[in-house]
Amino acid sequence: MAFSRRNFLKYAAMSAGGAAIVDTPFFSARARAEAEGGTARYVPTSCEMCFWKCGVIAKVQKNKDGVDEVVKLEGNPLHPQSLGKLCARGQAGIGQLYDPDRLKRPMIRTGERGDGKYKEVSWEEALSYTAENLKKIIEKHGPHSIAMFSHGSPGDYFTNLLSALGSGNISFPSFSQCKGIRDATWELTFGHKPATSCERVDMRNSRVIVLFGTHLGENMHNSQNQEFSQAVGNGAKIICVDPRYSTAASKASMWLPIKPGTDTALLLTWINILISEDLYDKAYIEQYATGFDQLKEAVKEYTPEWCAKETDLPEANIVEAARELGRYAPSVMIHPGRHVSWYGNDTQRVRAMAIINALLGSWGRKGGLYLPPKGKFPSYNDGAPEYPIPDEDPVIKGNYPFAGGEGLTQVVRDVTITSDPYPIKAWIIAGTDLLKALPAPARTREAISKLDFMIAVDIMPAETVMMADVILPECTYLERHDGLFKIETRESGVSLRQPAIEPMYDTKPAWWIASELCKKMGLDDYAVKDSWEERMKRQAKAWNVSWETLADKGYVSIPDSAAPYITPENQPVFKTPSGKIELYSSKLEEKHFDPIPKYEPTEQPGEGMYRLVYGRSPVHTFSRTINTPFLWELMKENELWLNKKEADRLGVKHGQRVRLENQDKVVSAPMLVKATERIRRDCVYMVHGFGHNSPRLSKAHHSGVDDQELITHYKVDPICGGTGMRVNFVKIIKEA
């Protein structure tokens, strides 16, 4: 907008004593609206186009019919996860809000499961129907026979419902299909996760950043990408270990196109080099770590010469990368990554990454990984009673001793199929498309066929949603209250989600849906007392946060909570059995796993086959945004990255369409070839999330190719239970 001197002075005058001028022009939603004459409202909220929860300011004006309309979304400069900017996905939130394909009313299935036949019903009928069916299942099989799969904020409310019922079978794809191994592994090593939502990486002060398959610039984590850009601008050395020349690799001083599956070999060799050449931080290790002597002995066999043969990387580059890390330590990092479930032996790979960060002294040091902030938040349950103890032990951890509290989705699916140790007869699916998230989608369909009842809570009519017995349409993030959200970056803070407009159509916020189901199930004590907004106000008071300030600014920091680096007065606390960084893990040893990582070779593709590698797009979030109008215009389909020499050998031209056939004879739809030198010859790459089969998604329907249908094989990590999905191989079939 045009920002005149007169408006600037209005903002300044309305700030508290002028002290907030540094936040101009968006230090106050109220002040901005008043300065502009009141023709628009500005609503600070939190984005949910991905999980990053960026601070957003929604501009709302009345249209020609006098109805409030969101006309613009901007980043909130006060919020540390947006820093005043939004990515393409965040700016496209308006497109999701006004997407004509949105779920609009509750629906009950009238035909066969999966045939798409539904009738629209009232909320009273939908909720009564849902409660009646759940009661029947509980009466016959017990509450443990109800399971939940979730992603995003809806999960909080339905976790409350299932816990109140007495079921502990609650799982999130974010653990076993994404970041769970990383979190569990860093807890084993440091006693802390490397992140709450955002990774605690001090990239803007880093001298060397190593990325193992972390596609910054493509996996569009807003504030982290801003810091990565700062690091590049400041001259940081980027070392990118990736079989594909990604956007991040294009900024690198060293690209290491590693043979897929050999990353642990490289990491263990780097550990050997750092120790044998005295490049590690001796004082740091002596003060804060245990198990160094065992580590030193264990890695001697991993020589640069051996590593070069195993990884297909030049020996000189292997050595030089390790020396660069040692040269600039401790202002260096191996980025912890996010999606780390690759090959089924991933815990030990991520352990090796954590150990290198320890050797370099980067945990708690400037330019490394900063310490958790000091601001603490008391637990708050708004006076609800304690949850009952589940009548049966949850199955969500399977036989994997270090599986986290978020549960293993594939284990819940397997138990649903086998009824071992007991039947699971109902699923609640909130905000996740399981057919696009879990490997081996045929098994997901088989599990669904075993259910007596399935509930879907979502915004869009995706494939999994359209297999449900009842569909409960959630309103978008721009139409509801959520939160309060604990924000933990370099400081602690609080943000909120509040509606810019009233819910459209006959949609409801997830808190209301879950609360009404509590009442229908006779669990009134666990229902929301009045409204979620009033609950948020009570919670803000309990946290000593001004609701008025929070609602006006969208983010409030906790004073004196920032303590990112180790100092004599700010010593790190390691919540491990030894109270130190565990290079040699006593917990792993207790469970009969290797206490120090060992290299385990990964199966390689056979003749005529390529390893299938997948990744993200900067304009899409998983599969959930493919139908969003603005984003679909930017990227309507995915492409197959194929090495140029392989394309020439196969007689395949750039822009030609081919099919892929995997090792289990599953054949894809035709897709465009991107013939490029930016990928190794032994693998192919495609962006995840495309190829929707739901005809109600008018734009996403059959746009691009579904990588998940080709991921029929997966290998489970024996320590944490993560599903390694980069173990599928494909051959290329030319279209006639």
Topology, element by element:
Layout: H1 5-14, H2 29-35, E1 41-46, E2 55-62, E3 68-75, H3 88-91, H4 93-97, E4 107-109, E5 118-120, H5 123-141, E6 146-150, H6 154-165, E7 170-171, H7 173-190, E8 208-212, H8 222-233, E9 237-241, E10 254-256, H9 263-276, H10 282-288, E11 289-290, H11 292-298, H12 304-311, H13 315-328, E12 332-334, H14 346-359, H15 409-418, E13 426-430, H16 434-437, H17 441-449, E14 453-458, E15 470-473, E16 482-488, E17 492-497, H18 510-520, H19 532-542, H20 547-553, E18 555-557, E19 581-582, H21 586-590, E20 610-615, H22 629-634, E21 639-643, H23 644-650, E22 657-662, E23 671-676, E24 683-687, E25 715-716, E26 723-724, E27 729-734
Parallel strand pairs: 6-7, 6-13, 8-9, 8-12, 9-10, 11-19, 13-14, 14-15, 20-24, 21-23
Antiparallel strand pairs: 1-2, 2-3, 4-5, 4-15, 16-17, 17-18, 20-27, 22-23, 22-27, 25-26
Helix pairs in contact: 1-2, 5-18, 6-18, 7-14, 9-12, 9-13, 9-14, 12-13, 15-17
Can you describe this structure?
- With 736 residues, the protein is of the alpha/beta class.
- Among the domains are: 185-371 and 577-590, Dimethylsulfoxide Reductase, domain 2; 610-734, Barwin-like endoglucanases (Beta Barrel), CATH 2.40.40.
- 30% of the residues lie in helices and 17% in strands.
- It has a seven-stranded mixed beta sheet, with helices on one face. The protein has a six-stranded mixed beta sheet with strand order 21-23-22-27-20-24. Strands 10-9-8-12 form a four-stranded parallel beta sheet.
- β22 and β23 (671-676) form a beta hairpin.
- α6 packs parallel to α18 (510-520), α9 (263-276) packs across α13 (315-328) and α15 packs across α17 (441-449).
- The longest helix has 19 residues, at 123-141.
